[in-house]
Design a protein that fits this description.
The two termini are 56 Å apart. The chain folds into 2 domains: 186 residues, Neurotransmitter-gated ion-channel ligand-binding domain (Acetylcholine Binding Protein, Chain: A); 124 residues, Methane Monooxygenase Hydroxylase, Chain G, domain 1. It is 35% helix and 28% strand. The chain is α+β, with helices and mostly antiparallel strands. The N terminus is likely disordered.
């Protein structure tokens, strides 16, 4: 690469211009301006904790250290990973910077945190690191002079909120079995794509069927207490419907050791249906055991309870959405 630098300077001298050699960063680590342009994100698989990404990556630097010797820290399925360089040798830009880049396509790992499902929000990461030069020799600096995303980029089922690129330090607390090799720090550059599920998915696909089931269960409190069979059939059917609805969305999620937001909402609905069943049993016993309790009086109280139960369910759901 040094020969390439001096040849470029010699050509500039022959053309009548003053030679402008890039400065080799001898004082401190060499700064490398890193940019990314995301073309596609597809096959986003929550169950496999991974996604495919297709993007352009470029580097601008002054110095003799090659910043293109990189590895992607969170890449998986190496057999299907492709990296195609822009140029075989780095170019010298008019401002004296060296420039090169690559187009990358591959699968990346991301640990999806689903405690807020279906209102979950994720920051998909693409992390790169130089495999040769530690941080005291080379540092990646974000190139924020350009956009990071293709204008018409769409991820079906998700809303793209924002994107950014940051630099941070990765410290390996090991010599990897080599006692002569000290633990060292390496500069990382990370691209972040923040995505979230649309509210329409939560309201129309998950909450709307559940509210219909809840209303049907509460409808039993509007039936006259003498029709005990009709009263009990509604919450029993609502309970079974809740179980099936919960299984429907749970099958699309990986096995996690905690309750997601939608699980907590369904738990609230189970408590509500259980309270309705308890009230129906109590009202039936009151009507059968004593002549003092008329059916009309019990029915009036049950209607008030139905409205109260529904309000408590909506307030509880709102509290879970806001604070859980």
């Amino acid at each position: 690469m040094r020969q390439f630098f001096f040849i470029s300077a010699l050509i500039g001298l022959l053309m009548g211009g003053a030679p402008s050699l890039p400065a080799f960063g001898n004082n401190g680590p060499q700064k490398v301006y890193t940019g990314i342009y995301l073309m596609n994100v597809y096959d986003l698989d929550v169950n496999e904790y991974s996604f495919y990404a297709d993007f352009y990556l470029w580097f601008k630097w002054k110095g003799e250290r090659d910043p293109t010797n990189i590895e992607f820290v969170n890449s998986i399925e190496k057999w299907g990973f492709t990296q195609t360089m822009f140029h075989d040798t780095a170019l010298v830009l008019p401002d004296g910077y060296f420039y090169n880049g690559m187009r990358v396509e591959g699968r990346f790992y991301y640990s999806f945190a689903l405690s807020r499902f279906p209102l979950d929000r994720h920051s998909l990461d693409i992390r790169l690191e130089n495999i040769i030069h530690p941080m005291d020799s080379l540092v990646y600096v974000p190139d924020t002079s350009t956009v990071f995303l293709r204008k018409d980029l769409v991820i079906p089922g998700w809303t793209i909120e924002k994107s950014s690129i940051t630099s941070h330090v990765n410290f390996y607390q090991t010599g990897f079995g080599d006692s002569s090799q000290r633990a060292d720090r390496f500069s990382n550059s990370s691209f972040h794509l923040v995505i979230s599920r649309p509210w329409s998915y939560f309201l129309l696909k998950l909450m709307l069927p559940l509210i219909v089931v809840i209303c049907a269960s509460l409808g039993s409190l509007f039936i006259h207490p003498v029709y005990i069979d009709a009263r009990t059939s509604l919450p029993i059917g609502g309970l079974l419907s809740c179980v099936f609805l919960q299984q429907a969305y749970s099958s699309a999620l990986p096995d996690v050791g905690y309750m997601v937001l939608m699980d907590k909402i369904y738990l609230l609905s189970y408590v509500l249906i259980a309270a309705v069943m308890f009230r129906l049993i109590l009202a039936g016993n009151m009507l059968a055991s004593s002549a003092e309790h008329s059916g009309e009086r019990i029915l009036r109280r049950d209607k008030m309870l139905a409205i109260l139960f529904f309000m408590l369910f909506m307030i509880g759901t709102l509290a879970l959405v806001v604070f859980a």
